[in-house]
Amino acid sequence: MNTSLLGESKHSIIQSHTQDSVQTMGWSESDVQFMTRALEVAEIGRGRVSPNPLVGCVLVKDGQIIAEGWHDHLGGLHAEQMAIHDAEQKGHSPNGSTAYITLEPCNHFGRTPPCTQALMWAGINKAIIAHYDPNPTVRGQGIQVLKDAGIEVETGLLEAEAAHQMREFLYWCEHRKPIVTVKLAVDANGSVDDRSEKAQRFTSEACLDEVHRLRRDCDAILVGAETIERDNPSLTVRRIETGRQPLRVVLDPKERTNPEAIVYTDGHETIQIGADYNGLLALLNRLGDMEKQRLLIEGGPTTIHSFLNEGLV
After folding, report:
1. What does the pLDDT look like over 202-234, one tens digit per residue?
2. Is residue 155 helix, strand or coil?
3. Residue 212 in contact with residue 283, Cβ under 8 Å?
4. N or C: which end of the chain has fewer CB within 10 A?
5. Which sign does the torsion angle of CA 15, 21, 26, 31 carry?
6. Which of 160, 182, 159, 179 is nearest to 169 (CA)?
7. Measuring CA to CA, how many Å separate 188 from each of 1, 138, 182, 211?
8. What is the maximal distance between C-alpha atoms in the chain?
9. Do 253 and 284 contact (CB within 8 A), yes or no?
10. CA atoms of 293 and 288, how far apart (whole Å)
11. Which band of pLDDT confidence, cut at 50, 70 and 90, is reported for residue 186?
């Protein structure tokens, strides 16, 4: 695996978070190292697995990592299944190993078979799990099934770090609506636009790269009608690799945007919130029903202030 995919910032965030956990939780140093690695490999799936959460798994035998796995894309192998496959590909038997998993294994048939069955079939004798799964289809069932099968289970190792990593998923499970993030570029005069000129970008190339990383991490991007009319943006992920494009949401209660705008004609998914618009909270609930877990607001001041004023950001 190419660890450069993970990014230095991801390493430093995880490492800084783990220091307090080492001191307060009483886990061994090797336990922390193995779970830290599971969190690191989970990051590889960022931007490709939603509405599923990021999950990482490492298999350890005789004090050494023999295999690694992560949920790589929606519909693909789950982290536990990939780790078992990785062990077999490397000529290692997973039988008798310990699995370090960032999220409680699923125990239901969805896009893939249950991960609990895969772990039992592989002969895992111990599972150390960072965070329980609050999804109603799991909620402790995965842990209980493993225990009933005679597999030793411990939980809570780097739980806070795991919760931070998959915060959008956990928030959606609890509230059934997306977390809202605002992106706003402001010039030295405190303005976002100079209306005496045509629309233009004044941020740096590095800033634009960061915007596209942020778009990749979100399930939906929202703008108002004025942004569509003035900028005619595409609102797609273009400057970095991604496994999917976010849903574009156009807030247009007066239905005045040009039907030939890029967001309506480029073939990527867009929804227009028109005359039946019932308010921002209703909109978030609607997106939650669509399993959108993180919403990025890229609109102008009017749209942004609307979300801020209602305390939704």
Report:
1. 778 999 999 999 999 999 999 999 999 999 999
2. strand
3. no
4. N
5. negative
6. 179
7. 43, 50, 19, 19
8. 72
9. no
10. 7
11. confident
Q: How far apart are CA 26 and CA 34, in angstroms?
A: 15
What residue has token string 């009608």?
225
Q: Other CB atoms closer than 10 Å to residue 93's CB: what's the count?
A: 13
Q: Model pTM?
A: 0.85
DSSP 8-class letter at 64: E
80 part of the active site = yes
125 burial (CB, 10 Å; 0-12 / 13-18 / 19+) is middle
Give yes or no for a contact between 270 and 249, defined as CB atoms under 8 angstroms apart.
yes
Query: At residue 129, what is the residue type?
Result: I
In the chain, what is the straight-line distance between the N-terminal and C-terminal CA atoms, in Å?
A: 36
Both tokens of 177, joined, read 């609506």
Distance of alpha carbon 309 from alpha carbon 206, whole angstroms = 30
